[in-house]
Inverse folding.
């Protein structure tokens, strides 16, 4: 292993080592503070470990892994996301009377899984990362065993997610049968002489498997139930990390194999995108339970994001499309994490299934959380000066450049509908507070750091997007 | 100019914070902020008022640029010409009036109220000054969110629905405008290889063909909703009726004008061919709005709703003026924006004062109020007569110029539109009669006449209308260079 490869893979190595240490520490002596401190340290170290590799450019780390601008940027986002989740759960686990050791360990394992996916350039490492993530997340969802809904959610996710992984694996196997290759680049090279029947069947299976994980309509059925059942901070992690990592792999997969560039794939992905935008938004209108509402909204957002991937797979404006996808991921991640952070801290130890009315007057009762939730909603709705608006800006620019008018029409329709339910929530936030419904809990200072970071993140990406936009155009 | 916007934005935060010192502070702070902003505005504009510079296509008095998102060639680019000077002045003036009108009305969270008021004004000023279309869109939405909060938090009984409707109409049409902006920007990028959202750059490489028509429609729809024009006006009566007084003042006085401003500055100038193709249709839409607004105003039982529908009617004149397509009618349209802003703001203040005293906006609870409150009666009469189009006051001047301009292109339609002057007189006098004449209907003990503070605000508005009506030449001189420049673009 040369030093370049070592430096490139350093974040993975650091995180892997930290997981072993945390595991040993738990076995040696249970102590919530030590475990969480170690985990915090591990995530920060992994972020620090990213920095030497920025200068290295494109590194073929092994046949399994590649390190480049995309992987570094997305890794940073994922590590920050995990950090936020960790900071939020610090006090939350105590409120819920849950054991913190395994929870923290599982969170780190899931994060390692996402990092492996982000660096993957081979079907084996892709599936390895996906399963590492998946297995950890099933357990995290079902972690509060007392709650029937959590166990139900975990089980549901386990069954459906395994089925979709099975499809993905079968698709990969067919591709192997057709091309004799598993490395993404090799697949791309062999594809020209491959049996088209096999490759199209494989592509369909891969797309379906991925669509399951991204909860695109019509593969979205599990999403609201699992989101509702999972403990709130885990929902935030599930809604962001797993999707971000998967999108990163898909970008790499399309870029290397060119499999996104067929008219069949294009039509299929376009249909999924349009269906997700329209149906996700329309169904969100009917939700009263906030976690279910955010579930449908995330379905719709994955639909928006897919626009960039469709165009990336099928046209010459590739670079801009990747930048659009990555920007949208950033915006979606920070806003979704913020929304779930607010819900976690509002619910505190008690209410794990908040409905709209529970938030009445939140802006007056707990101004910081109210502000956080409001800004997150505005960002999800795509209002200017938030990260979400720049995301929409990128998407519309890309679609206009590619002249994808149908996708644009669905985007406009979906956004207009979404304003309705986001605004209704904002109205609830600012309405007069008549029900002193939830327990008044102080925001613990570690969670406060996360809240402030998310707030600054959403506004920074919205008000001063120039720096990050320039960075994206340089590294992608 | 950026200082102007900055003062309003930061001032909003300060006004919000000042609530901690005491409930009476936020309006004072807001007034101080607006005075500071006005001073900044006057001191920067006064020295350059007669020194327009620029190319043949634009006549800026002031211009400034800071790079913002260089990846897409987007700059924080502001510029001011005669037309925007007028509209910014109107915005600041009505801002002060709105603060005065909210002085005693707002008891719930006064700090946050004034903050939102100032932020809306900051967005509006930004809309009138931005010449980078991306920035324009950002300001377009920045004025929207605080306005939504003003209606949603401090509105009347049906505020949730009204605020939502307002936001959805504007946001959905705004998305189409964003689409149109990006279509134009991408076309510019494909022509030149550079990204730019700058108005003057776009004028160098105009969009042509069917794409221009579609882009024009995107802009048109957003502006028509804001104006509002006839089939897409339905958010307005609800929003105006449910908004708190200061919200109605800003909404009717200033926010509606952004639609007309955008149509003239960007719709007509960037897509002259497409705009001219649909000019006749738009004239008909304008007349339909004038008549429809007037007829519905006749049937209203609610004071604020009546004024709201009269706004639909008067803003129809602005649309007529714009699409009559000659500088005379355009001057009339801009004058109408200012005059309607002043007169309608005053009428909404009267409605607010009545609501505060009677806890009702229904005419059935009014009647004979002149006896109890003679000052308010006189004020209402002055502004109703102004809004009806009494010669010697601003609205008459504006509507006359619009109709005179229209007569050159379509005499018959001009005749139809003139009918509205009659219906206007009918609903105006009907309003006066039912609210202020006849026997005193209310038994409320609360019928105090207008305060000196309110009277000052009304006096300023009345003086403005008189000035516009008796000696409009300075205003016309101010905007003529702008309109001539637009005429050159639209003609060639």
């Amino acid at each position: 292993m040369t030093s370049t490869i070592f430096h490139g893979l350093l974040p993975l190595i650091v995180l892997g080592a930290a997981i072993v240490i945390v595991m040993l520490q738990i076995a040696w002596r249970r102590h919530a503070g030590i475990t969480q401190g170690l985990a915090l340290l591990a995530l920060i170290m992994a972020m620090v470990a990213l920095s030497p590799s920025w200068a290295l450019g494109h590194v073929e780390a092994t046949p399994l892994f590649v390190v480049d601008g995309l992987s570094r940027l997305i890794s940073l986002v994922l590590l920050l996301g995990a950090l936020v989740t960790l900071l939020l759960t610090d006090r939350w686990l105590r409120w819920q009377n849950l054991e913190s050791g395994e929870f923290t360990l599982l969170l780190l394992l899931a994060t390692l899984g996402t990092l492996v996916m982000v660096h993957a350039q081979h079907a084996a490492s892709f599936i390895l990362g996906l399963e590492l993530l998946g297995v950890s997340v099933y357990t995290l969802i079902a972690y509060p065993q007392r709650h029937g809904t959590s166990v139900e959610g975990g089980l549901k996710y386990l069954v459906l997610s395994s089925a979709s992984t099975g499809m993905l694996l079968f698709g990969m196997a067919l591709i192997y049968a057709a091309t004799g290759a598993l490395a993404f680049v090799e697949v791309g090279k062999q594809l020209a002489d491959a049996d088209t029947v096999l490759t199209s069947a494989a592509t369909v299976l891969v797309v379906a498997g991925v669509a399951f994980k991204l909860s695109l309509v019509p593969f979205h059925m599990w999403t609201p139930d699992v989101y509702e059942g999972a403990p709130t901070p885990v929902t935030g992690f599930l809604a962001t990390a797993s999707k971000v990592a998967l999108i990163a792999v898909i970008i790499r997969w399309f870029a290397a194999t060119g499999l996104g560039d067929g008219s069949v794939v294009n039509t299929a992905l376009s249909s999924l995108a349009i269906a997700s935008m329209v149906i996700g938004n329309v169904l969100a209108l009917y939700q009263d339970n906030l976690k279910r509402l955010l579930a449908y909204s995330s379905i719709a957002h994955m639909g928006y994001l897919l626009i960039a991937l469709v165009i990336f797979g099928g046209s010459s404006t590739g670079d801009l499309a990747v930048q659009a996808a990555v920007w949208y991921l950033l915006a979606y991640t920070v806003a979704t994490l913020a929304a779930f952070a607010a819900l976690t801290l509002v619910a505190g130890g008690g209410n794990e299934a908040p409905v709209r009315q529970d938030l009445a007057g939140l802006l007056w009762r707990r101004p910081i959380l109210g502000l956080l939730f409001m800004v997150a909603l505005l960002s999800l709705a795509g209002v200017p000066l938030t990260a979400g608006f720049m995301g929409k800006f990128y998407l519309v620019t890309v679609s206009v450049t590619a002249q994808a008018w149908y996708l644009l029409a669905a985007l406009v329709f979906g956004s207009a509908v979404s304003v309705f339910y986001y605004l209704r929530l904002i109205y609830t936030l600012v309405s007069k507070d008549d029900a002193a419904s939830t327990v008044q809990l102080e925001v613990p200072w570690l969670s406060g750091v996360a809240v402030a970071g998310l707030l600054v993140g959403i506004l920074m990406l919205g008000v001063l997007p120039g720096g990050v936009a320039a960075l994206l155009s340089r590294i992608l | 100019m950026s200082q102007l916007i900055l003062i309003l934005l930061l001032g909003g935060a300060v006004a919000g914070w000042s609530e901690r010192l005491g409930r009476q502070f936020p309006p004072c702070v807001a007034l101080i902020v607006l005075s500071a902003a006005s001073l900044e505005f006057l001191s920067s504009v006064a020295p350059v008022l007669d020194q327009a510079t620029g190319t043949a296509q634009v006549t800026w008095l002031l211009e400034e640029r800071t790079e913002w998102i260089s990846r897409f060639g987007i700059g924080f680019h502001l510029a001011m010409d005669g037309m925007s000077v007028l509209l910014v002045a109107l915005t600041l003036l009505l801002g002060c009036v709105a603060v005065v009108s909210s002085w005693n009305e707002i008891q719930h969270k006064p700090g946050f109220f004034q903050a939102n008021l100032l932020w809306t004004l900051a967005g509006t000023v930004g809309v009138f000054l931005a010449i980078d279309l991306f920035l324009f869109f950002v300001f377009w939405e920045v004025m929207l969110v605080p306005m939504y909060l003003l209606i949603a938090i401090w509105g009347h009984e049906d505020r949730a629905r009204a605020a939502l409707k307002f936001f959805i109409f504007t946001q959905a049409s705004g998305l189409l405008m964003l689409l149109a902006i990006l279509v134009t920007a991408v076309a510019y990028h494909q022509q030149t290889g550079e990204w730019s959202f700058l108005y003057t750059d776009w004028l160098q490489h105009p969009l042509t063909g069917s794409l221009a028509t579609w882009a024009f429609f995107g802009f048109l729809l957003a502006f028509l909703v804001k104006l509002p024009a006839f089939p897409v006006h339905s958010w307005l009566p609800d929003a105006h009726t449910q908004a708190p007084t200061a919200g109605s003042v800003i909404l009717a006085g200033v926010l509606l004008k952004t639609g007309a401003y955008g149509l003239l500055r960007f719709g007509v100038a960037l897509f002259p061919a497409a705009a001219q193709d649909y000019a006749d249709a738009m004239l008909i839409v304008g007349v339909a709005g004038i008549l429809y607004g007037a007829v519905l105003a006749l049937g209203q039982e609610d004071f604020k709703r009546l004024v709201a529908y009269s706004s639909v009617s008067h803003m129809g004149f602005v649309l007529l003026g714009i699409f009559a397509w000659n500088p005379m009618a355009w001057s009339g349209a801009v004058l109408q924006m200012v005059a309607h802003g002043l007169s309608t703001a005053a009428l909404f203040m009267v409605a607010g004062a009545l609501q505060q005293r009677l806890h009702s906006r229904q005419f059935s609870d009014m009647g004979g109020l002149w006896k109890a409150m003679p000052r308010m009666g006189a004020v209402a009469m002055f502004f109703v007569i102004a809004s009806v189009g009494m010669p010697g006051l601003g609205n008459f001047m504006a509507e006359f110029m619009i109709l005179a301009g229209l007569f050159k292109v379509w005499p018959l339609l001009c005749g139809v539109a003139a009918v509205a002057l009659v219906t206007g007189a009918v609903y105006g006098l009907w309003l006066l009669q039912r609210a202020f004449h006849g026997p005193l209907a209310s038994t409320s003990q609360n019928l105090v006449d207008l305060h000196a503070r309110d009277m000052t605000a009304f006096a300023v508005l009345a003086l403005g209308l008189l000035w516009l009506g008796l000696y409009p030449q300075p205003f016309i001189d101010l905007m003529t260079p702008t309109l001539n420049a637009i005429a050159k673009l639209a003609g060639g």
Observations:
- The mean pLDDT of chain A is 89.
- The first strand of chain A starts at residue 59 and ends at 60.
- Chain A is about 80% helix and 0% strand.
